[in-house]
Amino acid sequence: MTLAESVRPQEGVVPTRIFIEDEIHEQELRNVFARSWLFVGHETEVPSKGDYVVRWMAHDSVIMTRGEDMEIRVLLNQCRHRGMQVCRAELGNASHFRCPYHGWVYRNTGKLAGVPLYKDVYGSNLKIDGVALREPRVERYRGMVFACWDESAPSLGEYLGDARWYLGLIFGRTDAGLEVIGPPQRWVADMNWKLGADNFCGDGYHVWTLHRHAYEMGVIPDGVRNGHVISTPHGHGIRIQNTPEDSPTPEYIGMADELKPMLERNLDEAQRQAIRKCVVVHGNLFPNLSFVYSFGAGEPTDPPVNFVNVRLWQPTAAGQSEIWSWFMVDREASDAYKAASRRAYVRTHGVSGTFDQDDLEVWTNITSTARGEIARGSTFNYVIGLGVEPDTDWPGPGTVYAADYSEANQRAFYSAWLERMTAAA
Fold it and tell me: What's the predicted TM-score (pTM) here?
């Protein structure tokens, strides 16, 4: 069967084979990752002239660098001579990058600056001024740096669309926004990248069982939930979980008191109401950028504090992913609050966090099980909330469902995936 025949998200049917087949993985690299806006990093990771970090856009190594003009660029990490990587350090500060193979030197703007024995070897056969490292399109949104190889793709603003209203709840609620603290944590997992994106885009159903420890230990307050799941064009999905007005839940997800006055300057009334009694906001920007904004305690004596975790599900193979996980916090927060926030992140959503350990055990098991001769012919079930009418009273944009448990966002995610996978080249 073709993908169009077997992948039927709006019926709640997703075949197991899309998580383990090499041919589908290769097609994703061409049709999904080469044509979408991909998160590369945050501007605070390269604060000064010459700062750079090496990142990946699917299987392509790229350098995110801040030039002498303070512009942030993304450069393909491939020499134009024989294809060797011109930068092999993961981060640093450099005005130039020198290929170790034949010594070609590039400025941090990507332009070729010098070639050993240029006149003797090349004569007039090479025009240095016309050679540069390849560059994707680069745009920024609230400090986040995105890149896209497809010249025909919409602008980043169009691509994010209605999702920007919800991103503002996290990345735009304070005057100076967020900053990255420390390098991203990285680990490799034997799982398909879509399982992480699928989970983060709107799966609240697994929390009661897989993460039950969080309720029993008081990390997440127990009680009534008023959840909403929101999908927007291009396959983006967000889930917001609120508690009743009389709940003891900390306001604004445990935000520092000294920062709360900034909310009125940066969020409208509807946005403030959306997170005032909120427990968690999490989501996924298609294809593979997930985020969670929640609160917790790093130590038993710590008061609940919020943290922001942004992560990429990098597709290294059909059945393997490299997970990149950033910790972010409000720039204006006190050092003590930042430290407490980091502890909360590390204990829950870091590489050794309890939530991640729970999730990874399941996702790796799903991927391994799917390789069975019989199992690969099965389908996954995504029918929760099928046929439910959208909530027209919700103040924010997008297609919204008033349900704590719904798979509407997953159906939207796989619909966007299918559209790209079956699009003409």
Answer: 0.95
In this prediction, residue 219 carries a pLDDT of 61
Which residue is associated with the tokens 């998160």? 39
Give mean pLDDT, residues 300-315: 89
Q: Which fold has domain 38-141?
A: Rieske Iron-sulfur Protein (2.102.10)
- Residue 112 · residue 134 · CB < 8 Å: no
Q: How many CA atoms lie within 13 A of 253 on its CB side?
A: 26
Nearest to 342 by CA among 325, 361, 359, 323: 325
Residues sharing a CB contact under 8 Å with residue 324, sequence separation 6 or more, in sequence order:
184, 185, 186, 311, 312, 314
Residue 308, pLDDT > 60, answer: yes
Cα–Cα distance, 409 to 10 (Å, whole number): 11
Using alpha carbons, list the distances in angstroms from residue 6 to 9, 366, 402.
9, 19, 29
Beta-carbon contacts of residue 413 (< 8 Å; ≥ 6 apart): 9, 197, 198, 201, 231, 235, 237, 284, 286
pLDDT at 81: 97
What is the reported pLDDT for 353? Answer: 87
Which whole-number Å values give the CA distances from 7 to 15, 312, 320, in the listed order? Answer: 6, 24, 21
CB 143 within 8 Å of CB 44:
yes
The mean pLDDT value of the chain amounts to 93
- Fold assignment, 161-421: Naphthalene 1,2-dioxygenase Alpha Subunit; Chain A, domain 1 (3.90.380)
d(CA 267, CA 124): 59
Please give the span between the terminal C-alpha atoms of the chain, in angstroms, as a whole number.
20
Measured CA distances, 160 to 197, 232, 243, 370 (Å):
16, 8, 28, 32
CB atoms closer than 10 angstroms to residue 32 = 24
- Strands of 91-93's sheet, edge to edge? 72-76, 60-66, 51-57, 91-93
- Number of residues that this document lists for the chain: 425
